[in-house]
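Notes on consecutive records. When two proteins share a document, each keeps its own sequence and its own token line. Never mix them. Below: protein one.
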Amino acid sequence: MKPKLVVLTGAGISAESGLRTFRDSDGLWEGYDVQEVASPQGWQRNPQLVLDFYNMRRKDVLAAAPNDAHFGLARLQEKFDVQIITQNIDNLHERAGSEKVLHLHGEILKMRSVRDTTRNWEIVGDINLGDKAPDGAQLRPDIVWFGEDVPKIVNAAKMVKAADVFVVIGTSLLVYPAAGLIDYLPDGVPAYVIDKKLPEMGHRKGLVKIEKPATQGILELEESLSKIELL
């Protein structure tokens, strides 16, 4: 059995593929107030604006390519049972070859009914007002907006509890509940954090800090992991 490597990724890893997020711009996402385009209230006020915004973001994702950090995490599958927990809504991990990816905040290439949260469908084009799900309700992006529940956080916490190694890469650890996942990591488990601006992670013993962009830090991570003995 391969050791379980659990990786929490965030905006920083996608940013190096050219995908901007609100994290980098004082609450604005591509010039939009995130409360207007990423909240239930924004949807109620102006669903057309929200659909237009995500239709544009979908095109951005399809035009972007995985970077060295995405490919580096996929390479680690040779020696580890890698489980990625991502806050990102793109599919760059999958396109780089990662096989186990849990999207905490949904996926921009999927859509669902405004009524039913349990079913979704693939989408690569646009969603328009008047596009209906089989239940007759309007379709919307299958994205977890601010103020909505994060149903996959329970499974993510279980994954962190079972980790033999834990890595945080490209996240500010400011958005909850994802930021609280570190608290589920058992004492003594090797942990790494990679970001060009390191987040606050308390005084956890044995934490290896790599203050570099994801594409550079992944090389240092690979070298470090090659030297540790877990099993």
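Protein two starts on the next line and is unrelated to protein one.
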Amino acid sequence: MSKPVQITISKLAKTSGIWGKNDLIPKKLFKEIKLGTDDLGIITTERENLDASTMGTTIDLATRCFILKYKDAFRQARKGADILNLLDAKERASYPAELTLDTDYEIPLYGDALFEGANSLQYKSLSKVTKGDYDIIATMAYLEACYRSLNTLQYPIKDLNSVDFKHMKIFMKRCKNFFQHFGNPSIIDYEIGSETLYGDGDYLSPNYLVDFKLYSRSPIQYPRNRRQILMYYLLGKEQHRYPEFQTVEKLIFFNPRNDMAYVVSIEDIPTDLIERTRKIMDM
């Protein structure tokens, strides 16, 4: 018997033809919470130089590094550097393929130096972080994207401009305030999987599961997000790898662009929706 093919939860969440129009958490069940970190309102992408994906990953990695002091913040980026053959031979792992850099972006450091500078940033206080520090984090975001896609990105990562830097400082203050409001996570960058599904999420605590979404719009406007976060919860609870999944009470999206949290209580999610989602996950 052949081994089942695994796909990512994010891919399943946006696969057409298998989901009914009601196979997702209704928007009306989410409570929208204004966190009130500042009075700056929505921070748009206007005049930002980084593309949206790189900006989102950069903020996620910066949160793990500067706010949560997570020592493995650049674990996935290191795998990307390995695949791109940027690490010293003694550090290399075994990957089925090796990519070459074919973009206009030039990685400024190699080998140990590539990550020594990034890892040292966790000792900085948020108020001391410089534009150059965020440049390093953006490089880590690029490498992580290469790992996740198992492909060299077909566009150059751009240098941060003054608007990027200004916005990043706002986002980081808002991320810090989110954790002050809801409490710090006990698990960062969790991984879950079954024979047919796997995925990794942002933050998990005994009380909540949260995904950060750096969008110009509300993250609950995208059906794939509402499907994805429910599948994270269901698979995590069934897997029993993290005890936190057994006590989670809330599923949350947090968007640093508008400083809003979108919260749904597990007890409010219809049981028939949970059962339909489980059946699709087992297909």
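For the record: Confidence is low (pLDDT under 50) at residues 97-106.
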